[in-house]
Amino acid sequence: MRNTVLAIALAVVVGAVGVTGYVLGRGTSSPATTAAVPYKVTTPPSIMSGAFVGNANVRVRITNGDIKGYLADGIRNPQAVGYNYKSSDPDSEQMVQFTGVWGTIEDPEQAIDRVFAAAARNAAADKTGNTFVGVPQRVFPTGLGDAVMKCQMHKPTSASHTDAVSSDPLCIWADHDTLGEVTRFDLATGAGATHLTLDQDADTAAQVRADTRVRAR
Length: 217
Hints:
By secondary structure, the chain is of the alpha+beta class. It has one domain. The protein has helices at residues 4-14, 64-72, 108-124, 198-212; strands spanning 18-19, 39-41, 46-47, 52-54, 59-60, 75-87, 94-105, 130-138, 148-156, 168-174, 178-186, 213-215. Strand 6 (75-87) and strand 7 form a beta hairpin. The protein is globular and about 45 Å long.
């Protein structure tokens, strides 16, 4: 599958505890610059200054199919990780889903476009339980640095989702070493639910990048 992040989000909504990933499409250009030293992504125990902590109840499984998908995205020697984070506020039901890959990415924007194209194809084939709204939009959140980021809204279509009329954003960053997929959503329903805008999820994704991207040793 790919994008793994959406499958995890849907799995959390319907109460599952294990998920996998999916495959890809096409894209364009690469404004990011090559880093002087290689980087990788990690899954720290908490992110965003402790606002979200690791959720051991949701397992992220990276498959051989995911790795083949990353190769098709134009990522050489891909290595992938994923993690689910829940709010550290006991009164909040917000979660952050993250999957990341590192390797050599010659064209970061093309890699992002391929991931979104694959997600749209899988959604159209009814393989993910998501419907994509509009098209991916280029965003420039504070702290993004020299990476490229695009975001798009997606709507869970599972009957098990109690707030199926809502849409949630998915943001993807890429540079010449790493690519990360981030969606932040709220399991609360009705008046208590928080539905993020693209810009809000972009800010979250930029912070997740800062927290998970480290120099490769």
